[in-house]
Amino acid sequence: VQLVESGGGLVQAGGSLRLSCAASGITFDINAMAWYRQAPGKQRELVAAITWGGVITNYADSVKGRATISRDNAKNTMYLQMSSLKPEDTAVYYCNLKGTSRNAKYDTWGQGTQVTVSS
Predict the structure, then answer these.
(1) What is the β-pairing status of strands 29-38 and 45-51?
(2) What single-letter DSSP state applies at residue 103?
(3) Angle at the Cα of 88 (from 84 to 94), degrees rounded to 5?
(4) Is 54 a residue whose pLDDT tops 70?
(5) How confident is the model over 60-115, as pLDDT tens digits?
(6) HEC profile of 7-27
(7) pLDDT on residue 52
(8) Cα-Cα-Cα-Cα dihedral of 78, 27, 1, 49, to 10°?
(9) Of 76, 78, 92, 118, which has fewest CB within 10 angstroms of its CB?
(10) Largest Cα–Cα distance in the chain?
(11) Cα–Cα distance between 44 and 51 in angstroms, integer?
């Protein structure tokens, strides 16, 4: 299983960006995917999560109203659209996938993509 994030970069405050996470090597059922972020000196925190079947979403209070998580089941790809970006959104953003097969559970992380918001 491999998760590849893309879409990070340098953005001015107030700007927007869209992160993508493409999953490959999937031979099991995906239950949910999520975006986490980790700023320097801080713990990794959940940004947003989405179930793969019922399309239930969950957002951190810090991004509610500014972020939209979505997924394309056919492409095994998840997206995070963020707007009105703030300097405090600066972090490495990680993609996480949770899945199950008949005999195993999967909890996989991507390598991360840097998002830097300048003031």
Answers:
(1) antiparallel
(2) S
(3) 90
(4) no
(5) 999 999 999 999 989 999 999 999 999 999 999 999 999 999 999 999 999 999 99
(6) CCEEEECCCCEEEEEEEECCC
(7) 85
(8) 30
(9) 118
(10) 49
(11) 20
Rg of the Cα trace of the chain?
14
Say how many C-beta atoms besides its own lie within 10 A of residue 118's C-beta. 11
**DSSP string for 28-91:** SEEEEEEEEEE-TTS--EEEEEEESSS--EEE-TTTTTTEEEEEEGGGTEEEEEE-S--GGG-E
Both tokens of 55, joined, read: 């399309």
Which of 51, 27, 53 lies closest to 106 in space, CA to CA?
Answer: 27
10 contacts: CB under 8 Å, gap ≥ 6: 116, 117, 118
| DSSP-based three-state secondary structure for 104 | coil
